[in-house]
TrEMBL record:
CDD domains linked: NTF2_like (cd00531)
Name of the molecule in the record: SnoaL-like domain-containing protein
Domain SnoaL-like: 17-116
Pfam families documented for this protein: SnoaL_2
Coiled coil: none
Endpoints of the signal sequence: none
Length: 132
């Protein structure tokens, strides 16, 4: 395999591992994929919005999102020359409130680890109503 393909394969594997750890609730696994200064930014005005700064805060953000009982259905892992993104369809129900959103979680990589995450959502008002 030509060496220029290795970063793409590594980025894809990182995305696969991130999703697997998230769905399994393996918080130490997620932590192992992050740089110490990692950040995660989510849009909206709710309990999980804003920017989590530092690997421990990013893990806590993942834990909090998962605590709402989401089904994180992976649609695609997308790679660029230097980064990776997860295309997801997240669904959940909390009482009468239903979450049904498509999103892209864009991960900027540094030295084979996730240095920053930015999530783009299809339904920010729906996210605000769900994550109270």
């Amino acid at each position: 395999m030509p060496s220029h393909e290795d970063p793409y394969k590594a980025a894809h594997q990182l995305g696969t591992r991130f999703h697997a750890f998230l769905t399994a609730g393996d918080w130490d696994g997620i932590r192992s994929l992050l740089t110490d200064d990692a950040t995660w930014t989510l849009p909206g005005d709710n309990a999980v919005s804003g920017t989590a700064v530092g690997a421990d805060a990013v893990v806590e953000r993942a834990r909090k999102i998962a605590s709402y009982g989401l089904d994180f259905r992976l649609l695609h892992i997308l790679v660029s020359r230097e980064n990776m993104a997860l295309s997801l369809h997240n669904t959940a129900r909390r009482g009468d409130v239903r979450l049904d959103e498509h999103l892209s979680t864009v991960c900027r990589l540094r030295d084979g680890r996730i240095a920053s995450i930015e999530t783009y959502l299809s339904d920010v008002p729906g996210m605000n109503a769900f994550f109270v």
